[in-house]
Structure formats: structure tokens, C-alpha cells
Amino acid sequence: MSINLKAVIARLAAGETLSADDAEATFGVIMSGEATPAQIAGILMAMRVRGETVPEMTGAVRAMRARMVRVEAPPGAIDVCGTGGDGAGTLNVSTAVTFVLAGLGVPVAKHGNRALSSRTGGADVLGALGVNVDVPVERLPAILRTANCAFLFAPRHHAALRHAAGPRVELGTRTLFNLLGPMANPAGVTRQLTGVFDPGWARPMVEALASLGTEACWLVHGQGLDELTIAGENRVVELKDGAIRSFTVLPEDAGLERAPISAIQGGDATVNAAALGALLRGAPGAYRDTVLLNAAAALIVAGRVGDLREGASLAASALDSGAALEALETLRRETA
């Protein structure tokens, strides 16, 4: 479907919104390298100022998925990731959760990147742990089957986004692109635990995911973090059995004690990798409990447990038995 970007910009400037089909066509032109930097910036900022809609988000994700390098995943695969953008600089939670789930036999197609808004991204800490995140893409399905987890390095799967990179950097502010990554997993997972930097985006993202075929998901925000926290109340928007509902969860719901966010303050890749390694070897503390809470939520989304307390107990067993550590060691070996 072709579309005239000048006409689109005129519509957006007048305050109009785009249908999902028009948004897909618009972002298809952008991701195909056929839009000028000025046109890209104009479209992104017109949407940002007016407020991006669910159909616009849905269409943009369709365009992104149509151009991504796909990876075959086993049935029941899940993704655990965040939008980034919380600026908190915490230890790597979703990466640790990946190994807990893998140790329990839940396949995880972990979509991630290097540090963008944080000090240490998933790719950074995995590299410091000896995992090769640049393994040839064609090997990823076999790695995922053998290790029950694989890291899908976003830039290699979404090369089409490079066409918008310049305008995004020059704008220097959040645009719709910041929300698209977690909704375009290269393995096409239909279950995911996703953290969001702004709780106001949780429901729109869930509505878009529902229209795109997602079976089950939790979009979460905890005390300013794009993940669940043991520091206090967490906000959740859930998709389950076609229904969307909002609720809050507390660390006590999983049988966990509270601790301040400062207790999981991270550092560079070496620091975060050391903490993650210690966690997988049984280290107690706030980092472990934060990972248990997020893993419990992921196990609910994966359909493995019925509540957070059961999930936290099962997640603890993966750490205490060494199964989570074995998942890391297997991934390291398979990506060598």
C-alpha cells in the first residue's frame, strides 16, 4: 500500500489520527528508507504532541514486523523485556529472569539491546558473562531449543530502523519508536512480560498487542521502573483469555520483603555481570527477591503457575538447584 507522506503530514498537522492501515503504510515508507529526515521528524513529533493512538501504534508494529529478520521459536516461548527509559541504572533484572525461566524449561526468546537509556543493557551484561550476542542469526533457533533461551540482538533483527535513527537522535525526545521494540519480538512470541517506563502507556500497548495476536501478557511499571519492584506497589495491565484488566501487586503478594530501589543499584557491565553471576550461584538479597517477583509474573504469563507466591517459590527452586546457572552455562557454550 503506497501513501503520500506530504498528505499524511498535513493530516497530522490538522490534528487527525491515522488508521492502522495508514500508519502501517506510513511507517513502511519510513522503514524502507524512502522518507526524508524532515518528513520523519515531522510525522514523529506531530504524533507525539497530539498523542499517539492504539491504531497508529498497531500499524507501526505491523510495518516493523514485516521487515524484521525472524527466528523460529518453540511453542510456548515467552519474552521478558522492557521499554527502557526509566533512567534508574539498576542491575539487569529481565536478563536474570531469562535464566530462571530457562532453568524451569520455559523457552525465552529474549529481545534486547546494548545500553541506550541505562548504564548496562542486556547485550552488555551477557557479553561480560561470556555469551556471544553476535552469533549468526541462523544458529539462534537451535540455541533456543538447546539452552531454552537465546538473545535476539535488536539491531540485527530490525535493520530497517536505521532509516529513522538520525531524526530520532536529533529530536532527542521520546517518539513512537521507543514503544515499538517490545512489541516486535523477532521470534513472534505470543506471551510476554514487558516493563514500561510510563504506566500511562501500559494499556495502549496491551490493546495493540491484543490486536496483533498476543495470547497473554503483563505490562508492568513499578515505582518509576520498567519492571516490577519490591520497593512498593506495582501497576499491571494484563491480557488473558482475550480480556484486559488492570490491577496492582505488592512484593508481599509473592511472599517477599520490601527493599528500596537503591538496593539494586547497578554499575557498568562488569559490575552487573558479577552481581548476576552471584545471584545464579545463590546469593541472597534484594536483587534475588526482585528477580523472583518478576520471574513469578513471567511464570503466570507463561501459564506455569496460578499466582505470584507459587511463581516465586518455583523461581527460587531454579536458583537454589543450580538450574538457572546451568541455563547460563549452556547458553555460553552454545554461542561460543
Whole-number mean pLDDT = 95
The CATH class of the largest domain turns out to be: Alpha Beta
For this structure, the CATH topology of the largest domain is: Pyrimidine Nucleoside Phosphorylase, Chain A, domain 2
Give the fraction of residues assigned to helices. 40-55%
Return the domain count: 2
| Total strand segments | 7
Form type: globular
Which runs of at least 5 residues are low in confidence (pLDDT < 50)? none
What topology, given as strand order, has the largest sheet? 1-4-5-6-7
End-to-end span in angstroms?
43 Å
Within CATH, the superfamily of the largest domain carries the name: Nucleoside phosphorylase/phosphoribosyltransferase catalytic domain
Estimated share of beta-strand residues: 5-15%
Largest sheet: 5 strands, mixed
Given the structure, what is the number of helices? Answer: 15
H-E order = HHHHEHEHHEHHHEHEEEHHHH
